[in-house]
């Protein structure tokens, strides 16, 4: 039920029930010296309209990817979330935090959890504990290329759990299998990330084999959106798979909330954390879903429990289930292939040296002439987030910028990013001009669009399309590519500069009529191609059409004799000519 405020009659009834005459008498037992003795210093109440306006103004101060172009990644990615996700998550039976202990009342929630398990089955600290319990070893090996925040969580839990943590370095952005195998000699588990934090693809088969040879459990930290094009952890010998599920079903949301996933072999199931749902049949033989293996949970085993979850925390997991089910295996492959193609295009298009030579999935690390943090700061002033500065987490990488591209980015977006390389060599910009009143701003407004300062944000800027030769590379049989990705309207500026002014072809007209043979317009139209050049933008087509129209009108006015009206102008301007007959008007092409 909704919130109902108390009335004066309600308060009087409550005071009478407890035997006091006023609210002040209710608090008499509290010493006067510690009581506030005045009203709270808060602003007056707002109406609903005023409150919505105020909150909208506060929210408008946030920068978000719907307005500004973002290449941020490093664990949180901007993948497309299908509209069906929010529709299903808004249903009341999923929104409730009630724990589905009573299966006869919660079949819908239980089935959703079961389906999620089915998808995930074919988070880092918990995996370490499972490995320790099953191997009786007290050492965990972490690859240095693992997400720094994940490594920090493992170290925090390890201190209280009696685990020793050893980190293994990297060579050219990937983990060395021999070094990892030597460090895992007496370890319970080895954790590596695929793709790793630098965006590079690790030699996962070699790493898992090196860990298994020493008796350690190999654990892979993976991205769900990569599983359409990369092997699943179980296929290259990992005992457990963990990861952040944000990329499948959750927007970035300023860092959370998101969900994590945990999958393991059946031999580890009684040591696993989290709630597990099983499928069974009821007394009538109908399929049903119930919470199973509850002896692991804290409401039964108390402090000895391996699972400590009370309220239902599966809403975001449901978002992942809906997204993965909606995409299906083929859609997941298409998304993965698109990300891989865009990452390769970024590696070729951005005029910076890649920091690592290893293959990548959707992130590429570049070396910048200036510190990466400075490049990020300058680009953000223009409404672009160029990537993540790896120097924040790794020493010696102050000049490395990690750029992430997903299926929501286009080659045109990457072309814009490539232009921001000039920010690294420009002198520092002066202080920004503060906003002036409208009258003062009018005096300093630029005289033309050519001299106007660039507008801030993604949607306020012109988008240059990718080169025509790159189009087949990105189409690559993917039906889920956005229209902007395969759009081939414009071409790069260098190719446009070498073109003659574009013109639209005109159908031949009968002799003696407007636009017929012998007129200036016919000669202009004949210079065009028989088909519209797809490399020509609408703006240029319209400009060419207007030039052709002016040439025709000047020629026609020179040949047509008219008797001027009294007081009329004697110059032959087109607007003083005869009105077009129906079906004869030609406006010169598409209007910009």
What is the strand tally?
Answer: 16
- Overall geometric form: globular
CATH topology of the domain at 103-322: Aspartate Aminotransferase, domain 2
Q: CATH homologous superfamily of the domain at 103-322, by name?
A: Type I PLP-dependent aspartate aminotransferase-like (Major domain)
Describe this structure in words.
With 592 residues, the chain is α/β, with parallel strands linked by helices. Among the domains are: 103-322, Aspartate Aminotransferase, domain 2; 329-422, Aspartate Aminotransferase, domain 1. Helix content is 34%, strand content 11%. The protein contains 20 helices and 16 strands. It has a six-stranded mixed β-sheet with strand order 3-2-6-7-8-9, with helices on both faces. A four-stranded antiparallel β-sheet has the order 12-13-16-15, covered by helices on one side. A two-stranded parallel sheet has the order 1-14. A hairpin with a 5-residue loop joins strand 10 and strand 11 (287-292). The longest helix has 35 residues, at 315-349. The radius of gyration is 33 Å and the shape is globular. Residues 422-541 and 558-592 have low confidence and may be disordered.
